[in-house]
Task: inverse folding
């Protein structure tokens, strides 16, 4: 049976809302997601996350981003606003050939470190995001030769080296993969089955050959987040050339074509020679989820887990998306039951 690593900090982040198309709309990445998953996995053994230092985190993220997230809520207090929301972004269209400077005003700096308006920061956001990093690192400590699941909230795969967004604040999967490298694994594969491309994870490893990033996701060219990344011609640069695989899928893709893409990724992981795997376990490609049009069934998720589990690699599954609360827990459980290649052993 797979063990579940969790953090008591996970529920402290309350987004409050999303600023979407200029409107304040209800947030979907809510604390109740943790309740739904824990209820579905309630008979599985639990490991409480232990505190870790920032060394691996700073391998993955620029120290200025980490410090901004650590301190921005306290500094934001002077405005009397209930959440941190960027309003100005230092895009190439704004700066041209000018150097990037950090603004003195925190409301100006917010857009330097955030890449959208929908990812709000509140009083418990830092603690929850940092707790998710402790979950990811505890999974590395505990995985051994089996499979382990980290209930990471907030999710992380949209966070680049220098900026947060997409309801994500720190990149849990990237930190986990880097920790596996530090632990002696020569080649690590990150397999991202979330409905949306993990632009942040791709960014972190795009020029590296020691970590493979492979993702199947709804086609950004069809108008889906993250819009600017996730295309099939993004294959890595420099030492990372060939260590990046994107499989964009058309809206309406169901189990058969989605699982064909999973099998293609499995073959890529085998050809790459990975010695460990991180699964970015988003279940927002499901038919009932409000965030994706891919229409994957629960049996499709179970089969995806089986296909990945057949690789028989030390595997860390970390929670990414999944926003339909009535089905969220059962989808996560089905994927993990498929992934548990030892047929219900200890996972150690």
Result:
């Amino acid at each position: 049976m797979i063990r579940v690593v969790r953090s008591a900090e996970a529920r402290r982040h309350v987004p409050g809302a999303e600023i979407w198309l200029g409107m304040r709309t209800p947030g979907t990445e809510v604390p109740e997601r943790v309740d739904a998953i824990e209820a579905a996995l309630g008979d599985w053994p639990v490991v409480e996350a232990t505190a870790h230092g920032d060394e691996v985190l700073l391998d993955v993220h620029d120290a200025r981003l980490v410090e901004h997230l650590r301190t921005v809520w306290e500094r934001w207090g002077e405005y009397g606003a209930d959440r941190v929301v960027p309003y100005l972004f230092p895009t190439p269209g704004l700066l041209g050939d000018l150097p990037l400077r950090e603004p003195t005003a925190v409301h100006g700096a917010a857009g330097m470190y955030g890449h959208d308006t929908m990812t709000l920061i509140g009083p418990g956001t830092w603690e929850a995001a940092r707790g998710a990093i402790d979950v990811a690192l505890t999974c590395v400590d505990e995985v051994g030769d089996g499979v382990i699941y980290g209930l990471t909230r907030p999710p992380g795969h949209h966070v680049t080296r220098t900026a947060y967004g997409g309801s994500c604040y720190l990149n849990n999967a990237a930190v986990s993969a880097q920790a596996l490298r530090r632990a002696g694994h020569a080649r690590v594969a990150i397999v991202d089955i979330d409905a949306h491309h993990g632009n942040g994870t791709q960014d972190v490893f795009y020029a590296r050959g020691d970590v493979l990033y492979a993702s199947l996701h709804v086609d950004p060219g069809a108008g889906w987040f993250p819009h600017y990344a996730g295309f099939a011609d993004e294959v890595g640069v420099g030492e990372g050339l060939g260590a990046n695989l994107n499989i964009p899928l058309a809206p309406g893709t169901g189990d058969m074509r989605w699982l064909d893409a999973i099998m293609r990724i499995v073959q890529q992981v085998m050809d790459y020679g990975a010695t460990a795997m991180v699964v970015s376990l988003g279940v927002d490609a499901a038919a009932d989820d409000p965030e994706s049009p891919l229409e994957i069934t629960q049996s499709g998720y179970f089969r995806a887990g089986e296909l990945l589990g057949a690789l028989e690699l030390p595997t860390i599954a970390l929670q990414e998306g999944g926003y339909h609360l009535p089905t969220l827990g059962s989808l996560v459980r089905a994927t993990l039951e498929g992934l548990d290649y030892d047929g219900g052993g200890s996972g150690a």
In short: The longest helix spans residues 125-142.
